[in-house]
Design brief:
By secondary structure, this protein is an alpha/beta fold. It has nine helices and twelve strands. The structure holds zinc ion.
Length: 275
């Protein structure tokens, strides 16, 4: 399956060394919103949607504190919709949005691709959209889905995938894309596995933030570690799922490439080639 890697939102917080693990304390770090555009048997599918055009038109809806802390670039050319056009497609060619979760830096582009079905874990929908149970205050930007997209829901169960359980996101039309629950960061957080030409690619969303967290002795720069902890809805669950990902990387790294949403190193390794 052909997979394009898109960065749909660069964030430039201060303290590069404490965020990216290298460089000066005083220069700005770089974080990305790593999305996958996949040519499937059922049209284009996009894994996560990054920052959207409506967010850029009205940045304060993203939250004053969030904007101050992450310093998003807010460049319309980075949005998924614009990049999809630049690749020669029409936004209406995108039939499916597969979301790891509904945090603002993942769900912003939903409204720019209004014809697509939005696939999420049921628990994510219940908390973010229905408020059952209520989300932590200010966690979600509900304006990002106020147009009322067509939702499709996932639960637990499904088929075995390297010791994880996954449900075929597009049913029988496309057997090689699976939604895999990896809760912790949010209660309905999922990874999305896609079979590429030679290897599987697992987009693990915000299940971890730094490539060093997949090493046997996990490492993560201080500010990212604090951010990870502050964003945890269920810390024990997040740690447990991160450990499972580390074990998967150690045992099956030759068959599965694991990436996360925000690590620019992962993105740089992926964006020049096709999985
Ligand atoms: Zn995120």
């Amino acid at each position: 399956m052909r997979i394009h890697h898109l960065n749909t939102g660069t964030m430039c917080p201060i303290g590069k060394r404490l965020v990216n693990g290298t460089g000066s304390l005083f220069s700005r770090a770089q974080l990305v919103c790593h999305c996958l555009l996949i040519e499937t048997n059922d049209g284009l599918a996009l894994v996560d949607t990054g920052i959207g055009l409506d967010d850029i038109a009205e940045p304060m809806r993203l939250g004053r504190r969030w904007v101050r802390q992450t310093s998003p670039r807010l460049d319309p050319a980075e949005t998924a919709a614009r990049q999809i056009k630049a690749l020669g497609y029409s936004p209406t060619d995108v039939r499916h949005l597969l979301l790891t979760h509904l945090d603002r830096d993942h769900a912003g582009g939903i409204a720019d691709l209004p014809g697509a079905a939005v696939h999420v874990h049921r628990r994510e929908y219940e908390m973010a959209v229905q408020g059952r149970p209520g989300a932590p205050k200010g966690r979600y930007v509900t304006a990002q889905w106020k147009h009322g997209p067509k939702w499709r829901f996932y639960g637990e169960g499904g088929e075995d995938w390297f010791g994880f359980k996954g449900v075929r996101a597009l049913g029988d039309r496309e057997g090689d894309i699976l939604m895999i629950p990896l809760p912790g960061h949010t209660t309905g957080h999922c990874g999305i596995a896609v079979r590429g030409k030679d290897k599987w690619l697992l987009h693990a969303g915000d299940a971890y933030f730094f490539h060093g967290q997949m090493q046997a002795k996990p490492q993560v720069p201080l500010v990212l570690r604090l951010f990870q902890r502050r964003a945890d809805m269920d810390r024990a669950m997040r740690m447990q799922n991160q450990e499972r990902l580390r074990a998967l990387h150690a045992s099956h790294g030759h068959e599965v490439t694991i990436v996360n949403s925000h690590d620019p190193v992962h993105y740089a390794n992926c964006c020049c080639g096709e999985a």
